[in-house]
Amino acid sequence: MKYFLVSQNKTYKDEYERKYLWAPQKNKTGQTVYHWSNMVKVSIGDIIISYVNKQIKKVAIAKSISYDFIKPQELNNQDWEQKGWKIDVEYIEPNYEVFLTEIWDEIADLLPDKYSPFTKYGTGTQGYLFELPNKVGQIMLERTGLSYLGDAIFEPQKFSSWEILNDKVALKTIDKSVLKHHGTGIPIGTRSFFELSDMNFNERKDIKLKYKDADYDAHFEFDSKETARTRLFWKSDFKDVLAREFKEYYDVLVNDLDFGDAELPKIRLEKIDQYNFSIELIVPNEIEEDFDSEEAENNLEYSEIRPEGNVKYIYGKKYERDPVNRANAIKYHGTICKICGFDFEEVYGQRGKGYIEIHHIKPLSFIGEEVKINPITDLIPVCANCHRMIHRRKNDILDLEEMKDIIDKYTFSEDD
Q1: pLDDT tens per residue, range 384-397
Q2: Which residues pair with 221 in a beta bridge?
């Protein structure tokens, strides 16, 4: 989760009433401007502080990433270019009024030297959207009485068969086009994720799809001026990969057969940069089968109890093993161990494909109390070895940094 501040002196009323942020993509001379370009950094669930007349007026939650949108009619009195970005948001009323002067001493030394929303004298910097250091955002949120928003859970943004999870991860549910042809459509709402806002009719953008140890050539095409239709095409080598990996679904989809209520597999794209995407293939029924196998092996509801001061916290297999939590965590984080980088498929082939364990990285609340789990911030994929080492000692559950330190200490290169 990231924090931003939006200066809305001119546009607050219209943007608040219609629940959005909007900024031009370029200025009158055709140049990009950093505080407008910050729109593409916003992910679903990010916190945006609405700042108006030296006061925190509202707190907004991003409900979408930025997407291409012509200047709204109600903003036509502003002398800006027509082509812009829009973000859908939910505005929330602060519990307490907060003026900049009241928190200046707390945040002044935490602000960046460059691209800060405020000068060193505590006055506003000219601009629209500014990224805030996490600590500054947390202070602002706390002073408004809305600190609980930092733990909120958000649904992905959906466009047809695509889901945008954040500014780095997207999911594409496989369909007939994916398996039979050499590509898939890119809905308008997903263009900003792929950084296609500057593409024009008949233009092409070459990219690399990285799957396992191989790179596959692909490209975007903007092929319809009237509908702004964009498509992603790949070559036959990647088409063959998908047909092989999803062979049990091929006949069903290509021949338009009924597949019942089964959830179709997804292609997970993680953006390395705008020209390179790491690919993982997620098969929901395999996740459910892994869950069932682990439940049969060990049907524990809770694992180790760890004392923290006078309060007992638990690390719960109840939450790590929940099939919905597991599936959502894999969608967001993939199937590579976040501690040591282990890949089950790389070592065990088809037997290990799509397998990973899920670890709850925060101590849960009091025993017996139900808690909401955020798969983005609370759960991570870990290999079986790292998972066992984390939980090995009842009174000494290791955190991620402690595990990484151990691995760094006892893992040596051949030259050592």
Answers
A1: 999 888 887 767 78
A2: 204, 231
